[in-house]
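Hi F.,

I've been meaning to write this up properly since the lab meeting, where we talked about keeping a consistent format for the predictions we share between groups. The idea is simple: the sequence comes first, exactly as it goes in, then the structure tokens exactly as they come out, then a line or two of notes. No screenshots and no reformatting. I'm using this chain as the first example so we have something concrete to point to.
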Amino acid sequence: MRKIKILLIEDNRILRDGIKAVIDAQTDLKIVGTSGGNHDTLLQARSLKPQVILIDLGLRNENGLRVVTTLTKELPQTKVIGMGLIPSQLDIVEFVQAGAVGFVLKDATIEEVLRTIRSVAQGMKILPPLLTGSLFTHVVEHALRKGKGTLPNAVRMTKREREIVVLIAEGMSNKEIALRLNLSIFTVKSHIHNILEKMALHSRLEIATHSFENKGL
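Output, unedited:
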């Protein structure tokens, strides 16, 4: 079996050694080089030509964004995965624009890390579920700044979801909405969950507020 070749860029030696040990224990993965994020990182990447680069986005001695930009420009066939604590919305967008195709939170499980590496190596783009909401929020905000309409107009919702937004704005409970629309409470909750995700909101109150501000959907 041909192993997926990985270059690990992490300036914390304990983490670097630990990650290397875990990955090298896999039958299909191999750390072909490690770097503390110093000046030899690019030289290593050019020489080793790894399939995947795992890089700490919070390098002490280097600008992680600049490193990712350079790596993806010089090695377009190599997939870059960023590692770090929960980044801001802007961080996520900037690293995606720089060419990163995956993110691993530092509190992720070993299984999540390995799954991300394997998925990215196969051509997938991976964001942890915790980050997708932040990325979606930024995309919506970007659309609004570009003058593409109000939030409800920038978000695609089904006819049923729009009906539920109106009923929430009228102060109806989930049970009342279910009775009005002849739906199960579970179905109503599912629709509300989708609405919150699409609108990047966190509560029924915020849904009602946006509905009033935008005079319905």
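Notes:
The first strand starts at residue 4 and ends at 9.
Residues 147-152 have pLDDT under 50 and may be disordered.

If this format works for you, I'll send the rest the same way.

G.
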